[in-house]
Fold each of these.
Amino acid sequence: MQQDMPDQNFHDTPKLHEGELTNIRELNRRQLEALMKELGQPAYRARQLHQWLYSHQARSFGDMTSFSMKLRQQLASAWSIRPSSLASVETEPTQGATPGHLPTSKFLVRLDDGELIESVLIPSEERMTACISSQAGCALRCTFCATGQMGFKRDLAASEITDQVFLLDQEALRIYGRGITNIVFMGMGEPLLNLDQVIEAIATLTDQEYRFSIPERKITISTVGLVPEIGRIASSGLKTKLAISLHSADQATRERLMPVAADYPLDALSKAITEYNAKTGQPVTLVWMLLEGINDSPEEARKLARFAKRGLCKINLIDYNAIINLKFRPGYSDTKTMFIQRLLDAGLHVTVRKSQGATINAACGQLATRSVNDASKPQQSL
Ligand code: SF4
């Protein structure tokens, strides 16, 4: 069953600095409804205001021409509109790249309070995938992940999630000549720890009446495997895809890689997956990053096959991308071939994702806005 969004009053929203008007993009839909009600407006005006902000991307209340002059003035006297902005963009060098390789681009996005997050555009022949963040930093401290090393800053508001998509869509058109076709919540943060805002953002991004709209099935939410929240997604009616970072089907190894796994043993995770399968009719993707000497053995392949066959699961093998200060190494290619073959022999559906963006620290596990990664590479400041 879908849980209700917290029914905050919009008056709770703090102003950044004394004298500065509160950013109306901090309000969720319910808060916009409460605001319009307080202003004596009919309920449909809240939907119109939301459309002005997130479909038309209005930068001023004066642009909202479907509102009376009085309403525009009332809004402008109490609120401001301050979307997130691009702080820098970095595109992979094409020199020395394999022919046909499309360069990945990484974006530093500045939030209204000055916090910085990262988002990535991953182009391929058929797709333009935006990898977006749901939190600034992350509290879960997975041992292989740069974001985990920087610690947790704060949750993102739904508008800060959608802003990344709007900014990246414009950049995709500018850099590659085509817009976003897919979205993955695989940037900074654990989306299931900020699920209310993620669900609200998805509602905006999939609204067919809005200028930017993408089908829910083109969105993938990725989690380390938070069992109660997987249950919530299963019951929510969301049509998005679900990816679970498994990385090991051995409980002790999994806990070593992802300390939070101690709270969600493999049996409980497997049960959550089968319930998700039953409620949604959809498989989950088990993401597995091959790490030399840790999870690339025949025994790990056997355990993975056994775990995957307990539910409806696909397997996505990804390359580990070296992160400065972290001691892991990617699995050898012959070990990888053996590992894949064992999974195929077990009758599993396996895809292998080639790493993209590693040269600009934009690949899986490499996103960090502070000093964890080597920041010496030049970036184009905006
Ligand atoms: S892998 Fe995901 S959940 Fe784990 S620390 Fe990194 S961002 Fe957080």
Amino acid sequence: MYYIGIDVGGMTIKAGIVDENGKLYIKDAVPTLPERHYSEIVRDMAELCKSIAAKQGIDITEIAGVGMGIPGTINSKAGVITYSNNINFEKVPIVKEFGKYIKCPVYINNDANAAALGEAKFGSGKGSRDVVFVTLGTGVGTGIITEGILLEGKMGAGAEGGHIALKMGGELCSCGKRGCWEAYASATAIIRQTRKAMELHPESLMNAEAEKEGKVSGRTAFNAAKKGDVAAKKVVDNYIKYVAEGIISMVNLFRPDYVLIGGGISNEGDWLMQKIQRRVNRYSFGGHRNPKVYVRKAVLGNDAGIYGAAALAMKK
Ligand SMILES: [Zn+2]
């Protein structure tokens, strides 16, 4: 059977046709242009679906279901986007609106939740019923599947692991509270930590790296650390501890089989996963007496949003 997954982002809307074996047949994208009224954006989404189906030679009535992964608080049961800051949506009845164009079952969920489902069904957590997905990007997003159930909380407003407390009264978070995990472990946070270290250590290679890139990025400290820069190594070591600290809390709460890490920072790859793995082994509750939790890089990459959204439609 064919399913369509739609990955709704602030810049682009991507859609792809996927089957239940995880084969991605075709994908395409259109600009979101988020300043428009939602009815226009939803119309574009429906047209994108019709266009990829037509290009693939599939009649739109053959699509068994459509899933959408959307950033923000998503009321999946009501089919309503409660609030999405990236696309300026507030109380948008997106399932009903989309139904004006395409008649098939439509499922929506938060993008990190959808990505967790996609990874559990087709990616690094394939076959597992207990997966915690963590995305280290502009923010820290989490998706939690426990005993096969995607945790959403009331009206989809839960499972926000990025905002668990790491340090009371600490750094200011995007949510308005201080000391959240996100304020220490996001790409935004490592950029801030890198800038601070660059000021303190003008001799550090981080300055040259940033100049080469044209900006301070999430990679700057990692690149300089690999060349042996002491100040950069300290930034990276601290950052890894911050990431691991939050993951250990997630492990203690949910004890999954896998913690899967996605987002730009995860491109650092295996050595980063191994460092986090060692801290998780050492510090999670019960130590070696409790079931081992494997820390892995999420593998679906750029198409994770499409796979995850399609998986939303398949789970019913
Ligand atoms: Zn927060």
